[in-house]
Structures are given as C-alpha cells and as structure tokens.
Amino acid sequence: MKATLYTVIALVAFAANSLFCRMALAEGYIDAWSFTIIRLLSAAACLGIIMTIHTYHLRRQAAELGSIISTEAILNDKGSWLSSSSLVVYALCFSIAYVALDTGTGALILFSAVQLTMIGWGIYKKEQLSALQWMAFIVAVIGFIYLMLPSAAVPSLMAATLMAMSGVAWGVYSIRGKSCVSPLRATGFNFIRSLTAIPILAFVGIYLGDVAINNFSLDHITTKGIVLASVSGAIASGMGYSIWYTAMPLLKTTQAAVVQLCVPVLAATLGVVFLSEPLTMRFVVASAVILGAVLVFILNKKVPIAATKKIM
C-alpha cells in the first residue's frame, strides 16, 4: 500500500512538472537556461530548510531514545555526484529540447529512453518478467504511442539527441534511488551538489548565442516564469523526487519504468483541468489502455521456476 501511495504521488508530481514547464517555456515566460537554474536553486533551498529541521528532530529523537546507530545511518546518506550529475543533465536537456520539439515527439523520445534504460537495467539485474507482463508492457507502449503520435513530427537531430540524453539521465537517476537510506537527504544533497553547475549553465547560456536552442537572456525572464520555475523546483521536483526515491526501493526497476508511462496521461489530464485543453476521445481511449495495461503489469508477478516445479 505504501509503494502504491508513494508512486502515485510521485507520478502526479512528474505530471505537474511537465505542466509547469509547458506553461513557462511554451508561453515564453522564461528561457530554458533560466528555468533550469531557478528550478535547481528553489529545490535545493526548499530541501535544505526541510533537511535542517529533519536533522534537528532526528538528533533530538536519538538523544531521547538512544537510537544513535540508525540515526547516523540516515544522516550519512548524502546522495552522490553521479546522481546529482544525472539530475542536472536530465533537467537541462529536457528544458532546452522541450521548446524545440512538439509535445508528442518529445514525450515519445523521452519515455522511450527512460524505458530502455530502466528495463534494460532490470533485465541485467535478473528481474524476470512473465509473458503477461511483457504483453501488458507492449499494450501500454502501443497506447502511449497512440496518444502521442498525432502531435509528433520529425525532430531536429540536436533536439532529439538532447531529449534522449534527458531520458537516459532520468533513468539513471531513478535507478540510483533504490539504494538510498534517506530519500529526503539523498534528494536534498543531490540538488545541493547540482548548484555547482549553475555558474557553468549561466556562462554557456550567455555565450553560446545563436548556437543554443534556447538562449539565456534576462529579457526573457518574467515574474510568472520565475514563479513557475520556483514551484516546479521546490514542490514538483524537490518534494516529488524525494517521494519517488521513497517509492523506488519498494518497486522493481521494471515496475518503476513501466508506471512512468502514466505520466503523459496525468499531464494531459492536468492540462484539461487547469489549461482548458480539449478532452478528446483519443485521449480517453489511450488513457484507458495505458492505465489498464500498467495495472495488469503491476498486479501480475513472475513466478520463479523453482517455485513452479515445487507446486507441480
């Protein structure tokens, strides 16, 4: 039950992130470089405050109950540079490529890369899937393609490459969450480490000029863009990714990969509710197919061969 709750909350946060990004970048309220910088800063600030309060209560609890060992194990979880680097690559490549790709094209490339990365790693780690799970996964992918294909177009090579890099980086970041002891602290320190990349992002964004897909420019920053980037960072990213890291140890890598196919459905639903986007029959059919297939995949479990022989 905990795994389901954490996963659903995290997926809603991912969908909200997509919505905030679409509102900020597609409407021209802010440029991709500035959006990424503010997103990282706000997430680090939010999680830094929460971690300070959390650390105080942990130490106080340890002093009262004498649980020093478990407390130290939690406090020693400070994420990693690999996770932080993956986070920066994901956030930056996604923001830059987003404005150069149609919604359908971007989603198809991004989630294809995520699926290949995470399911490939799961298979490498000997996570076996049943025939029904493979069928459910294929059906979910077909439903996903059916949903996104009408808005897809032939992308530029650079934009497609950046979005694929974003998907791989997110897959790596998600996989790294399976081994964390404290999801909150791991996520917080990953975002704090990411701040070291901000001067580089600003420098490159300013001096790339016309080479960049979406240039850094103070003229492109509006109050609404700052607010959207801040909310995307502090809530949808900072808190959302912490909850995702809480869910990851409770899920198989293949499960974590497949459930993310629900994100475009949730993002489109938020678009209908908050942006008054049209509700089409294609969306209803595709959503039912994707959600149904994901549910079948999650509920069906691979029966080990040894257990099957024992039953027989």
TrEMBL record:
InterPro entries: AA-Vitamin_Transporters, EamA_dom, EmrE-like. Keywords: Membrane, Transmembrane, Transmembrane helix. It is a multi-pass membrane protein. Signal peptide: none annotated. The keyword Transmembrane helix applies. GO terms for cellular component: membrane. Residues 159-298 form the EamA domain. Its main location: membrane. This is Permease of the drug/metabolite transporter (DMT) superfamily. It is found in: Membrane. The chain crosses the membrane at residues 36-58, 79-101, 107-124, 131-149, 155-173, 194-213, 225-244, 256-275, 281-300. SUPFAM superfamilies: Multidrug resistance efflux transporter EmrE (SSF103481). The keyword Transmembrane applies.
